[in-house]
Amino acid sequence: MTITLRSDYARLLPKGATIIEVQPIPASARKNRAFVLWMNVSSTACPDGWQEMWTAICPESTHGCHYSGSTKGSLVDTAEARVINTLAVWGSHDAMATIAVTPSHGVTDSLDIPYRLGRGGPYYVAARFGKPKVMLLKDYNGDGEALEFALFDAWTCSDLVTTLIGYSRRHDKVIQYPVRLSWIEPNEKTPHVVTTHWVEHLFSSKPRRPGFWKYTATYPPGVYEDYEMRYLPDREAFEGACRVREAPVPRR
Hints:
Helix content is about 0%, strand content about 45%. It is mainly β. It has one domain (about 5-245). A hairpin with a 7-residue loop joins strand 10 (about 180-185) and strand 11.
């Protein structure tokens, strides 16, 4: 049985699973494959007046009306009607950040996934307000194939953490790309080296060339994070460094 309907995918998932989106893998990469993003929804939120508060950079840009709960990505063989593998998506708690939170780097797959947003934020929305395209496949890692989609979580109007999920041709699996990050605080010579899955602004930033990024994230008052990141195709991973610097406080 070839899977074509949303109800067919639902029968392959655990009881009570909420399908967020289904996205076929391009046949040029692998025939009879599809991504399914789904959740065990624990709560929903659609705050009164969120449209009036809408901005394209603040927390509303990735939350709006959203589901909260355990988030999974599954790769499905559509010809044989079977799940190949299921990924528990790491939550954004493991991102390094100068402000807002202290990363725990613990294992959790709890996320907020939007189902209604305004246009102009990191998720694509066709209308002024409407359903976002969460699984928008692009060539994010610069390998020439549009087999990845990014998830975004705006903590504040400055903090936008991003993660990348995609299809591994090598392993015929859905994966969440790890990032080995060297984090250097002001006035420190020895970096903190961590493996994370969420990085500030990485997959919302335009690369300098395929697979290489160099950008600065700015936070008030006068804090800057200078990133230099690259994709390692042999490892199906990213690595890079972030140097945090502070502008001197102007004299009065």
